[in-house]
């Protein structure tokens, strides 16, 4: 069995691109493109009209994902490979105090769900898996929102296993933790106001405003 | 009753901003900000990795909306005004052959639904109405996709009335045409694959690929 050729984007956007273009293009071939870098979306707090944060979040959390995908597309088509995109509940349901991040994650959902449909219509065998993640206990997440919400963080090791599993099985999406997030997604269009008010109860406003 | 002070963004992003900053700021006050300009998202066809189209669509169809909102925010808070954002079914359900447009519309949905929640939590009385529109018989839409889908276009006059009505009533969203789109939105998270296949049947692939 051939070795699996994998690219993980774990750095900020531009670094990831540099790393990719220098090292991987010359290695020849790619089976999995895992897009997971984050940055530039400003602090978790009220939106103060900071356009630099909006632009930066779009560049790092959306445009660089698309750029990496474009660069890898030929190799992924050759290997009938897979794209795995790390999104968030904030990419499905608007999230207060993190507008730039939410907008970029929504943009990812739009781009990659459109791409998945288009690839199928063009009969190109390349899978696109979107990972809709809740609150995960990475150092970064704990630092940024640990004291600002009352939710329990979920283990990153189990999260990573679920994401890898869904990507390998070429599932259209993976939701983690499933039983916390799926009901919210199912009800989102049915009773948006009620659902947002439920979610608002997890926020510790005195630590945010 | 005071005159209603209204700003419609009907031009491309940068022009809209110029128009706004020169004329309206000096007029003093604003009750309604209607964001409706479009451009730069490339042709309706297979995605060829054109990063310029992605960046341009994000700039015109997303970032300039946010910039206009930021510029108008103080006046809108003073008047307890309303923001009306024109989105699309392509901002809720990924759309093949128009990836850049879909991504920008998704980003709008993310930003403005997050903003609405945040304004409520900050107890700022400013309404945000998102208009989810289907296929409308504007000259632009007919020209771009008229020969590429089998759907019937809906009258722009009725569409405009519905959008204005929802904005004035400070509704969170308006869906037009309601009975065509609402079932798709309700089922989106319940059976995404089936729903996308239903939508795919409206595409005239030989006119696209």
Automatic annotation (TrEMBL), chains A, B:
Signal sequence segment: 1-16
UniProt keyword Oxidoreductase present: yes
Keyword Repeat: no
Keywords assigned by UniProt, alphabetized: Oxidoreductase, Signal
Gene3D superfamilies, per the entry: NAD(P)-binding Rossmann-like Domain
Any one GO molecular-function label of the UniProt entry: oxidoreductase activity
PANTHER family linked: HYDROXYSTEROID (11-BETA) DEHYDROGENASE 1-LIKE B-RELATED, HYDROXYSTEROID 11-BETA-DEHYDROGENASE 1-LIKE PROTEIN B
Family per similarity comment: Belongs to the short-chain dehydrogenases/reductases (SDR) family.
Listed name of the protein: Hydroxysteroid 11-beta dehydrogenase 1 like
Species name: Gopherus agassizii (Agassiz's desert tortoise)
